[in-house]
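lol forgot to send this yesterday, sorry. struct tokens for the thing we talked abt
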């Protein structure tokens, strides 16, 4: 096998040997079925292009009579073989699969023409003492961060940690660790319990702030600390002051405006939240999360048709963005378009299997009166909970969908203890309407710190308007 072929069929610790028809991990052969081998080769050969189910049935199964679910099952099995690089096998909702090759940590220094940038601003001038090998590793970490999968975030965290160990004074590496930990605790990824990871994230972000030599890293570190405060401390008044100071000092920092929008939404100030997220979109119009948050705010404002229009645009422009489909599904379910909502949730699950999509599918089936289908999917969620951390928040959603009020409240109480990030939206989330008359739910609102805002909103009779 020549060097070009070696590079083509090598990724992470894996190497696909075409001549031997074997898959190697760190030089050791793995047991893999011929069909999975053929599937992996076909996807690699496509070089990132989507292979449809028909393409795969023709190329891998020789055109035999094979149903799409067989392809899906084979791809799922292949992903388990590739742990912890299972995110290399990615689904295109309703179409097929593609190979998402990870960045290589073996990149030659001579191929790096400049250090990586953060949000378009060069860091070389501020950190001239950082050796090139560390820049290369940091660049790989940033690339993994941008992939935004559970697996890539875990790899990015590991790489950032290695860079921080090599260059203790390099603030962006510490900030990278914090940002990875924060994302991995959120509902969208659900990989780490917030009560365990967020203190470590805060320490890393504080370290980054104390070491920062450039304005952009300082702004980013402050934004991350405020985000941690929003998820973990729930001191909304103080956080509002913090976001205002940050935006005044760094008006061009998009994530500050985005975080402020989430805070304002939790406080029930929908018009202000819409303005904040619009400001964020003006600064960074290409961000799928910022684009999606605009529809998210509209959904929580009970303006579901507007939210659907906005979020359909999000999934159109960013078709490989799993949270976009979840947010779209929530708006569709609230608009009683249950079948379409389930389809959107399933698209999210196909892109990134996890509890947020599964729990949402169960809730949508249950509220649509399809109890048996809901319980069938519930078995998947229970199996998932045996192999990874699943927040009690998701089981609260399941109980709420089945109309089981007391168990739902018990699970929400546990989710509050763990600091689940979606707890801050209890006051505006439509799926909790069935619990709002319960004393324990009001106690939860008070515990999270949003009860005063809920009461204030009711007194003023505010329902957000589009400006």
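and heres what i got for the seq, position by position
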């Amino acid at each position: 096998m020549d060097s070009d072929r070696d590079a083509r069929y090598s990724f992470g610790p894996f190497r696909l040997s075409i001549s031997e028809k074997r898959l190697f991990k760190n030089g050791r052969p793995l047991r893999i079925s011929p069909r999975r081998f053929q599937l992996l080769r076909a996807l690699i050969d496509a070089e990132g292009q989507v292979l449809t189910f028909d393409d795969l049935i023709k190329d891998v199964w020789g055109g035999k009579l094979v149903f799409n679910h067989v392809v899906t099952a084979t791809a799922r099995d292949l992903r388990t073989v590739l742990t912890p690089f299972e995110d290399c096998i990615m689904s295109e909702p309703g179409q097929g699969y593609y190979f998402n090759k990870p960045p290589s940590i073996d990149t030659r220094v001579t191929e790096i023409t400049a250090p990586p940038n953060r949000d378009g601003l060069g860091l070389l001038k501020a950190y001239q003492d950082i050796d090139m090998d560390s820049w290369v590793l940091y660049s790989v970490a940033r690339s993994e961060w941008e992939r935004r999968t559970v697996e890539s975030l875990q790899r990015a965290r590991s790489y950032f940690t290695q860079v921080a160990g090599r260059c203790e004074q390099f603030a962006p590496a510490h900030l990278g660790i914090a940002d990875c930990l924060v994302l991995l605790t959120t509902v969208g990824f659900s990989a780490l319990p917030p009560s365990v990871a967020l203190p470590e994230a805060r320490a890393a972000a504080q370290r980054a702030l104390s070491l920062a030599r450039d304005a952009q890293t300082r702004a980013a570190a402050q934004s991350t600390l405020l985000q941690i405060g929003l998820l973990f401390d729930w001191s909304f008044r103080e956080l509002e002051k913090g976001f205002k100071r940050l935006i005044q000092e760094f008006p061009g920092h998009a994530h500050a405006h985005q975080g402020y929008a989430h805070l304002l939404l939790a406080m029930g100030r929908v018009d202000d939240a819409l303005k904040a997220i619009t400001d964020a979109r003006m600064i960074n119009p290409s961000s799928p999360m910022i684009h999606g948050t605009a529809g998210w705010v509209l959904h929580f404002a009970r303006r579901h048709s507007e939210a659907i229009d906005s979020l359909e645009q999000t999934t159109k422009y960013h078709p490989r963005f799993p949270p976009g489909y979840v947010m779209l599904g929530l708006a569709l379910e609230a608009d009683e378009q249950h079948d379409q909502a389930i389809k959107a949730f399933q698209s999210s699950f196909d892109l990134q299997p996890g509890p947020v999509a599964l729990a949402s599918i169960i809730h949508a089936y249950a509220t649509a009166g399809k109890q048996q289908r809901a319980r069938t999917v519930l078995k998947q969620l229970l199996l998932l909970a045996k192999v990874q951390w699943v927040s009690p928040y998701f089981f609260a959603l399941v109980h709420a969908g089945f109309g089981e009020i007391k168990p739902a409240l018990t699970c929400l109480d546990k989710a509050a203890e763990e600091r689940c990030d979606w707890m801050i939206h209890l006051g505006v989330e439509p799926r909790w309407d069935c619990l709002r008359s319960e004393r324990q739910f009001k106690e939860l609102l008070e515990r999270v710190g949003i009860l005063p805002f809920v009461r204030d909103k009711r007194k003023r009779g505010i329902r957000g308007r589009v400006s």
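The CA atoms of residues 398 and 404 lie 9 Å apart. anyway ping me if u want another try
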